[in-house]
């Protein structure tokens, strides 16, 4: 028994030693902050003093209507942006993946440019366009007699605008991944389908989409995580307004941590976001692991 | 084979550990040499002084190499040269104004706040309530008390102690485009070039009517009479002033908001009426004060907000040709009573608590030095000097000093020195947004602001060292 364990350890120690540096970094910079965040969420933190308050910070959150608004908005963003991104990327990728290489490169490049531009720059460009007083969109609408248009100052339009801006910036990544995955699908399948007389739509639905399943899972997970953390667009375009109608969990966390100095409450928001992300990602990760 | 692999992997690991420990070893060495430098010799004391951008140069921006830290660096040199208690070294750092709270909160949590902080008083009040600042009462002498008017001391006093040494102030006023007034036939309402004009509320309404109806569209297309903004907390002091227009006191003696009365509602109704009537820029709920300022400089707004720094910068932009040149003048925020509504941002230094008593001592002496030395305080002319002696000596240089001075009797303390003021600011603009969008009536918006605001004040009072000594 001892011999067996010894040989097992000997055989695998090299592997463990190789992952040790990465594990140390992982423990120090990811696991420890998560645990510390959970601990801080149970404390009221003042200058130079910490007081254990149990679940008081969570109670404060659940009594704050803005928190629920932030939670609702975040869910709306996640659902719509992820569906739009996956749907549109599938559409573009399946339309172009088998065309000639130059054309595919051009499409890939043009959709990828916004991904490379910083989100801050993109948000500033959009804010120039959307500014109700001197932005281009409101200027044109006044010019053609539509009156004042204030898409960011209207509770009904602010969410769709932010969804569109984020989607337009993010979709390039998904298109690149899908095209790569589709090019990798075995040609035999398409030839067989052609011989059987399958239509383009049938090829996409029955061959292409199932074949790129793992990519869909991956794109969905990274987009869910990215959108849950959506912050820059909100900070620069709306500041959470009008009347808190575009505030997200991340923006709410930032306000609590850095504007109100409520570190305990901010940590509680962080813990809730962590749990939400975990719940959303686990089933997807599981399916990915199973497939492997 | 296995042994060979084991040996090579252990060697690789050791190399890695050596590299990592080498790095941390260096850090440690650096830290100790740093630490011993400040704690070993009783003579040598090193402190840090932070400031947010205020003005460039020691005396003014025309000096060679003028930058935001020039003044404090110069002060530090002079201070060290004449200081006899310790061999003092002051490290000066400029930090961005919008990162102030973030940097301070992180550094306070880590136990490394700056020793001296030079900034407007109003966003720093929370740090007094949190117990992070040292009282400065003991370094303020009678000469300073008599040279600096009581309103400035009021802004710097929390409980029984003074926490900020007033240096200069930046009074908030309205600014107007006199050319646009003339084009709309409003010459009779113009004030002098070095005057801060006071209009009655009725006159102000006539001005807005005149600008709305008679401004020539060919010359000023896409222009509006007055700036209105509520996108975020920037410039919210003007919004707070508008809410006092009909005589509301805003805070009671216990430091609670009392806006929810007939006068408060009247003010909110007035704002909403202006907005709906097209007297202001459109989309106030998503326009920031920065946007409004840019629109004013592009002659898209006839009346906007300003303070001496913005006013000077705006004029400089006109001179340098980066913005259109026109005739700009100052006016007070009008009120129903006829008296102008006047407020100011007092700028001054504070001292953060430190575990090292010597550092605190040096920091206090440094603050006293540059806030009271007759040569150093001349730099306060970049804003408006708080010292009557300086204002008097430099009045020929800047004729507006006298006009600002005449306003000081109408000044109100817009923060009320309440705890949690930074958090309180976040409660106002969402309510104003709801008001402008029509999501809430003026009554409802005022009521909700008062309830939300008082909740913030109450919870911050519980943790305030001023309210719980």
Task: Explain what you see.
The complex is a heterodimer of chains A (292) and B (469). By secondary structure, chain A is mainly alpha-helical. Chain A has a domain at 72-245: MetI-like (MetI-like fold, Orthogonal Bundle), CATH 1.10.3720. Chain A has helices spanning 2-40, 56-62, 65-96, 101-116, 119-130, 136-143, 158-183, 187-196, 200-211, 213-228, 232-238, 249-259, 263-291; strands at 43-46, 49-52. Chain A has a two-stranded antiparallel sheet with strand order 1-2. In chain A, strand 1 and strand 2 form a beta hairpin. In chain A, helix 1 (2-40) packs antiparallel against helix 13 and helix 5 (119-130) runs parallel beside helix 11 (232-238). The longest helix of chain A has 39 residues, at 2-40. Chain A is flat and about 75 Å long. With 469 residues, chain B is of the alpha/beta class. In chain B, 45% of the residues lie in helices and 14% in strands. Chain B has 17 helices and twelve strands. In chain B, strands 1, 2, 3, 6, 7, 8, 9, 10, 11 and 12 form a ten-stranded mixed beta sheet that branches. A two-stranded antiparallel ribbon of chain B has the order 4-5. In chain B, helix 10 (262-276) packs across helix 17 and helix 16 (421-437) packs antiparallel against helix 17. The radius of gyration of chain B is 26 Å and the shape is globular. Chains A and B meet through helix 1, strand 1, helix 6 and helix 12 of A and helix 1, helix 3, helix 11 and helix 16 of B.
Annotate the secondary structure layout.
The complex is a heterodimer of chains A (292) and B (469).
Chain A: H1 2-40, E1 43-46, E2 49-52, H2 56-62, H3 65-96, H4 101-116, H5 119-130, H6 136-143, H7 158-183, H8 187-196, H9 200-211, H10 213-228, H11 232-238, H12 249-259, H13 263-291
Antiparallel strand pairs in A: 1-2
Helix pairs in contact in A: 1-13, 2-13, 3-7, 3-10, 3-12, 4-7, 5-11, 7-10, 7-11, 10-13, 12-13
Chain B: H1 2-39, E1 44-51, H2 70-82, E2 87-94, H3 100-109, E3 116-120, H4 125-129, H5 142-147, H6 150-156, E4 157-158, E5 161-162, E6 165-177, H7 178-183, E7 196-197, H8 201-214, E8 224-226, H9 236-243, H10 262-276, H11 289-297, E9 301-306, H12 308-320, E10 328-331, E11 343-351, H13 357-372, E12 384-385, H14 388-393, H15 400-407, H16 421-437, H17 442-462
Parallel strand pairs in B: 1-2, 1-3, 7-10, 8-9
Antiparallel strand pairs in B: 3-11, 4-5, 6-9, 6-10, 6-11, 6-12
